[in-house]
Amino acid sequence: MIRAYKFLMRPTVGQQGALAEMLRDHCSLYNGALQERRDAYRHSSRTTVRYGQQSAQLKDIRAFDLERQGRWSFSSQQATLRRLDKAFAAFFRRVKAEQAPGYPRFRSGKRFDTVDFPKDGDGCRWDSTPHDPVTRVRLQGVGHVKVHRHRPVVGKVKTVSVKREGRRWFVILTAEQTAPEPLPRTGSMVGIDMGITNFLADSGGEFVPNPRHGAKAAARLEAAQQALARCKRGSRRRRKAVEVVARLHRKVRRQRLDHAHKSALNLVRDHDFIAHEALRIRNMSKAPAPKPDPATPGGFLPNGAAVKAGLNRSIADAGWGVFLTILTAKAECAGREVMAVDPRNTSRRCPRCGHTAKENRPTQEKFHCVSCGHQAHADTVGALNVLRAGLVRREAQPA
After folding, report:
1. Is the separation of the CB atoms in 379 and 205 below 8 Å?
2. Apex 276 CA angle, 271 and 281, nearest 5
């Protein structure tokens, strides 16, 4: 299996400048390759420039621009060209699927933050010994950069990436390792129902509160964004204001990730089987369609867009998609089983008699079956139904 590690780098002032130049030159290579593809298509719609042709030109590009392109790793430049090739492949896939195409765009130097090295030892070297307190990563054109390795790297390092986040630099490793020993069996099974009021409710009646990290930081973010809007473009004061806004967003993202990791870890440690709803989060957070007013040409009727915007903000703040991804990865490492089930009517079906009706849920939190009179918390009822549906689906799957 492949596991990723992310460590903080501690470069010197000179190394920070070299890292910034490396990003700048790879960004220039990306934009130049994109321009070549655009020009070829404009010249003739039948002319297609692919990765193999652009990679074959790298030798001449490096020889022509020895001071900039020639000082960096050949493999990392190939990886940058592959990124562009993947962007075009995704573009054509979306065109065939009749989705929003999203044609690849030129990258600004401020938005090009990652350089990949496809193989450890080719333009980069992860130098780490188990008992050495100082860890370094060697990067071609930069040198040996100190790394804050807060945990050991298990397995053989396959790829190395350098990423810039604000003023900080990180190294991201992928290591191939053997499958870990599964956790001891607990004999417990659980279904979870994710929501806005509570982050999740399980079939045992327990609740995990929603921390609402984005809502708590909304006032500070609003003030920082207003200060940014008042700054003159291109000024030093504006650059500082951008850093403040980015720093606040990064803090919210880290808090959300921390909460997702801890919640998923508790579930994986305590239960052998976990069932959850197969939520289509993108569809749930879509803006409502406009409603034309037939009485007024060019006018529109109220469609609840303001209320839906608040709900969409809460859904994004909860981070269900990130949590489910982390839960699946942790369950795989621990030897647990995770099952996604159809979420339809899970909060409207009575777990006692099976009666399904909209009237069974008179309020957001209350469940009261109109057939048998069973009462419970609506989220707990949903979690119970999710667990039962997950067990039925597991038994129906072929061995």
Report:
1. no
2. 145
161 Cβ neighbours under 8 A, 6+ residues apart: 114, 115, 116, 117, 171, 172, 173
pLDDT digits (tens, 9 = 90+) for 266-287: 999 999 999 999 998 888 888 8
The closest alpha carbon to 140, from 170, 158, 160, 165, belongs to 160
Residue spans per domain, the chain: 2-176, 189-396
Cβ-Cβ contacts under 8 Å for 60 (sequence gap 6 or more): none
Angle at 124 between CA 75 and CA 141, to 5 degrees: 85
pLDDT at 127: 86
Q: Are 92 and 76 in contact (CB under 8 A)?
A: no
- Strands 273-277 and 189-194 come out as parallel
Neighbours of 56 (CB within 10 A): 9
Bridge-partner residues for 160, per DSSP? 117, 173
